[in-house]
Amino acid sequence: MPQIRHNETIDTLLQRRSIRAFADERIDEDTIFSLETAAQHAASSQFLNDWSAIRIEDPDIKQALAQIGKQPYIAQAPLLYVFVLDEHRNAAIAQQQDIDVNSDEFTLNSSYRFSQAQNDGAFALHAMETAANSLGLGCVILGSILNDIDRVIDLLGLPQYTYPLLGLAIGKPAQNPAEKPRMPRSMQFFVNQYPQHDEELLEGLQEFDEQVHQYYDLRNTARPVDAFSAQIAKASTDKEVLVRNFSHAQRQGFELDK
Predict the structure, then answer these.
(1) CATH class of 8-177
(2) Cβ-proximal residues to 196 (8 Å cutoff; 6+ apart), any chain
(3) Based on the number of CB atoms within 10 Å of its own CB, is 161 exposed (0-12), middle (13-18) or buried (19 or more)?
(4) Where in this chain does the record put each Nitroreductase domain (predicted)?
(5) What whole-number distance in Å separates Cα of residue 233 and Cα of residue 25?
């Protein structure tokens, strides 16, 4: 059987947990500078640097984001960022180079650039999260801020050609959650091509379901977590996610049909 090769970086990644309770301790400026610099060193497609991150220090904005996300711990995080897909800066640079951003020749608002900037923002967020974890801090990624995209856009004053991606809450952990089970490698890593038969693809699912069902999430310690299959079945008919579509992108100037 293959064995994991351990070093500081791999162990930091393997020990990753989502932390939703933080000690009431400020994050010092050197740490903030280190985390932001680490995020800037993430990969950037075509070197477009088409993301930005807004550090939220205003308690009222924190509280508003907590209400949007329906998660009180968002407002309690010592360090809170919202990562933003950002082609506005590049559009401003293009205008300085005499590009007409209102013409049909302008493509920074296209579906490809939108997707590309999403990826780059996620890379940067993950780099910041990993850096924070390596310094002994805890984090939780906040997809919940997308519950009300229009309100987030207004709260953060996001201009044309920007779009909220994810939040990241950071602080000294005040909880120690158990490691969440991970899917068997055979269900996620394939050689040369995707499995051609679902029976092969789902081999190992029953054992994974049992492992997940035995896991207790600190958000609800009174009962075990639903089996993975049950979670997927529920998610597959969850209509609440339909409001998190990209219809809001048109308001921000993106044309996702081109």
Answers:
(1) alpha beta
(2) none
(3) buried
(4) 14-172
(5) 40
**Structural domain boundaries in the chain:** 8-177, 185-235
Distance CA 78, CA 213 (A): 32
**Segment 45-79, tens digit of pLDDT:** 999 999 999 999 999 999 999 999 999 999 999 99
pLDDT band, very low/low/confident/very high, at 112 (cuts 50, 70, 90) = very high
Per-position b or e across 26-40, b if 16+ CB within 10 A of its CB: ebeeebeebbeebbe
> What's the distance, CA 237 to chain centroid?
22
Which DSSP category does 182 fall into?
Answer: -
Enter the tokens of residue 83: 């990562």
d(CA 174, CA 157) in angstroms, rounded, equals: 32
**Portion of the chain with pLDDT greater than 90, in percent:** 86
- 95 closest CA partner among 161, 18, 46, 25: 161
The model scores a pTM over 0.85: yes
Write down the pLDDT at residue 222.
62
d(CA 157, CA 54): 11
Residue 62: closest CA among 74, 44, 54, 50: 74
Task: Tell me: pLDDT of 252 over 90.
Answer: yes
